[in-house]
Amino acid sequence: MNPSVRILYYHVIADRPSLLFSHGISPRRFERQIVCLKRLGYRFVALSQALSQPQPKTICLSLDDGFACNNASLLPLLIKHKLRPALFLLGMCIDNRALAWNHKLQILRNSVPRHLLNQHLCRLIAGADLDNLFQVISMSTKDRLTDELWASCMSYDQEEFLQREKPFLSVSQLRTLADNGAELALHSASHPDFSRLSLQEATLELQQNMAAFEQFGLPYHRLFAYPYGRVMSANEDAGLLTATTLQATFGIRYTLQDNHTTSTLWQRQNMESGPAANFIEFALKPLARSILAPKP
Q1: Are residues 191 and 66 in the same domain?
Q2: What's the whole-number mean pLDDT along residues 3-27?
Q3: Predicted TM-score (pTM) of this structure
Q4: Is residue 1 part of a domain?
Q5: Which of 45, 85, 137, 277 could serve as 49's disulfide partner, Cβ 3.0–4.6 Å?
Q6: Taken in order 109, 206, 235, 141, is the CA torsion positive or negative?
C-alpha cells in the first residue's frame, strides 16, 4: 500500500505563545519542518484537495482554535511556501466573542494558585480538582461551571480580557488568511468532548458552529476536527456526517492504513513538540499502531 495522506496539526505557530494554550512551535522551527519535508519529497496541498484526490507523499496542514498569535507569522509563511492550511475554528470564539471552557481553565491555571483553584472547584463539584476535572465535569454544565469558577477567582470579567487581549483571530484576519489560501473549517461551537455527547447534542454543536460562520459571512468547508481528537462511535460519526452534511471528520490517531478515500474519518498528527517527539509522532507511532491494530 502506498503511504497515505499525512495531516499535521498545530495550535500555536508563534514566538509569543497564546495565553490560552501552553504549548506551541516557533515560526522558525515550523519553517524548518516545511523545508525538511519538502526535501524528503512531500508536497503540500489543501485539505479539500487531498480528500478528493489523495496522493502518496502528500501533506496537509491544519491549526486548531483560531488563535490570533498565529496571524503575524502564518500569513508570510503561507505566501512564501504556497501553503494552504485548514483553520479549524470554534464558533463561539470567532472575532473574540467568547472564551471556550477549556480556554477559561487555562487562564485560571495561569492566574490562580493551584491549591486555591482546587478549593473552588471542590465547592462547585464534589471531589473535583484540576487532575480529574476533565473526567468529572459534565459537558452540559461545563460553560456554566467555568463561568462560576471565573467569577469566584478572577478580578476582571471575561469581556474585559477578550477586549484587552483579543486572543482569537478577527473576522478581518480570517478573511485575509482565506484570501491567501487558508481553508476555514469546523471545530465545534464550544469545544466539548464529543465522545460524551449524544448525536443530537453533537449535531447542535456543529449547527451552531456553522451558524457563526454564516453570521459573519465567512466561507467555510464542511470538514470537522473533533476537539481533543476524541471521536464518537463509528455509527454516531456516520450519523453526524449525515445530519450535518459533513464531507469528513478528523481524529488524532493516525496509522499507515488511514486517510484513504474509503473512509470519511481521517486522522491527524500533532507536530508542535520537540524534534524527538515529532519524529516519534510522525514515524514511529503510526507504524506501531498499524502493527498492533486488530486484523480485519
Answers
A1: yes
A2: 90
A3: 0.95
A4: no
A5: 45
A6: positive
Same domain (yes/no): 213, 178: yes
Do the Cβ atoms of 210 and 245 come closer than 8 Å? no
Residue 9: exposed, middle, or buried by beta-carbon count in 10 A (0-12, 13-18, 19+)?
buried
62 with 77, same domain: the answer is yes
2 pLDDT band (50/70/90 cuts)? very low
DSSP bridge pairs for 248? 223
What whole-number distance in Å separates Cα of residue 6 and Cα of residue 42?
10
Q: Are strands 58-64 and 43-44 parallel, antiparallel or unpaired?
A: parallel
Cβ atoms < 10 Å from Cβ of 178: 15
Let me know if residue 259 belongs to a domain: yes
Cβ neighbours of residue 201 under 8 Å, at least 6 residues apart? 139, 140, 192
| Interatomic CA distance for residues 285 and 200, integer angstroms | 33
Domain that holds residue 270: 6-98+166-292
68: CB partners within 8 A, 6+ apart = 18, 96, 166, 167, 168, 169, 170, 173
Q: What does the buried/exposed string (b/e) look like for 111-143 if buried means 16 or more CB atoms within 10 Å of the residue's CB?
A: ebeeeebbebbeebbeebeeeebeeebebeebb
**97: pLDDT confidence band, cut at 50, 70 and 90?**
very high
Question: Using CA atoms, how far apart are residues 110 and 117, in angstroms rounded to an integer?
Answer: 11
